[in-house]
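BUG: 3D viewer hangs when loading the predicted structure for this chain

Environment: internal workstation, default settings.
Expected: structure renders.
Actual: progress bar stalls at 90%.

Input used:
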Amino acid sequence: WVNAYKRVSPEIILEQLKMAQVQMLQYLESLDPDAKAIFPVSWAGEDISTNRFDIAREYTERWHHQQQIRQAVGAKSIMNRELYNPFLQICMQALPYHYRSFESPEGTLIRVEVVGEAGGVWSIVRKGSKWEFSNEPGEIASQIYIDQNIAWMLFSKGIEINQAKQYWQVIGDQELGMHALAMPAFMV
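Structure tokens produced before the viewer hung:
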């Protein structure tokens, strides 16, 4: 397709993209948000997902590629509260599933904070044999701080953890905290 489209003018490509966007939006609006999606959101550990979460997954893909393009051409970033915070909230749905292999004592609490105006705080706690989101206070085993300017790149594997050292900090259990930095939050 890349070779075939080398002869197509930018104006025609933009028209085709606009038309595809309209059709995609119409299709997404036609879906029952609570019905079963065609594909599960596997990076969040789901075997079955709702259309709502599948559409959210689609948002992460589109946000990610839009940000990459903007970064490449020097255009204004879309890392603002309105657009980036929803991206982060969706990505963080992978957190409990990402920690599934960690055998920690009951009540172990991990907190991830994406620092910046668009950021947020997410906590998971070990309950029984799995990790769950929690708003309950408790002793934090590992606190992870990630600068919002680099979080999207870590979650998309667009940068190595060690390359981004000055943009994150782990306080407490280092092994638990470092694991959050390696979380894949969508398929790349």
